[in-house]
Design a protein that fits this description.
Elements (H helix, E strand, L loop, with lengths): L2 E3 L4 H9 L2 E6 L9 E6 L3 E5 L2 E7 L5 H8 L2 E7 L7 E11 L6 H5 L8 E15 L15 H21 L14
Antiparallel strand pairs: 1-8, 2-3, 2-6, 4-5, 5-8, 6-7, 7-8
Length: about 180
């Protein structure tokens, strides 16, 4: 039922682009650390080439993914078909955090809609592409995109967002450094 692919081909990139939600999972190296899985949505994901993907990382309540990537780079991104034929796709690879000071940040962020809450772009070099049946994944109806995070970030403004990131996004729940280390 499942198979591995050599790369992200045009057909798969198109399918990925149609998905309205994806999940990002990372973990620290330490066996007692917390595994993290975060849902992402909106127009925030791009297949850059057959072995590279990127997503727009928005300010949130934590920064686990960033901390784990900075520690060890391991990441998996999962897409599920909630409409149409059943399917699950996983992209395994090594991720890196590109904050506004990174030389590649401007070129990558230009591929996404402007979002006041953007704190980074996560770029992943994909080493394994796999798909599986998704037969047990239920159907869900998409009613629309939430704008709560966008409104929250705009209401905070630049200075208060930076203050929030320093207070809430500087370390992971396991104490690993995340933002503010650039």
């Amino acid at each position: 039922m499942s198979k591995s692919r050599e790369q992200i081909d045009d057909k798969l990139a198109e399918w990925i682009g149609q998905q309205r939600i994806f999940f990002v999972a990372t973990a620290p190296l330490g066996g007692d650390g917390h595994v993290n899985c975060s849902p992402k949505g909106g127009d925030s994901f791009r297949a850059i080439d057959p072995h590279t993907v990127a997503y727009q990382d928005l300010t949130g309540s934590g920064a686990e993914t960033i901390a784990h990537l900075r520690e060890n780079g391991r990441i998996v991104i999962m897409f599920c078909a909630f409409e149409g034929p059943p399917a699950i796709v996983r992209l395994h690879g090594r991720g890196e955090v590109l904050t506004p000071g990174h030389p590649d940040f401007a070129a990558l962020i230009a591929q996404f809609p402007k979002n006041f809450g953007t704190r980074a772009v996560i770029r992943v070099k994909v080493s394994r592409v796999s798909d599986s049946c998704g037969y047990a994944v239920p159907f869900f109806d998409h009613r629309g995109r939430r704008d709560s995070l966008d409104k929250w970030a705009q209401e905070k403004g630049t200075a208060k967002l930076e203050e929030y990131r320093r207070a809430k996004n500087a370390k992971s729940i396991d104490g690993l450094p995340s933002l503010g280390q650039d």
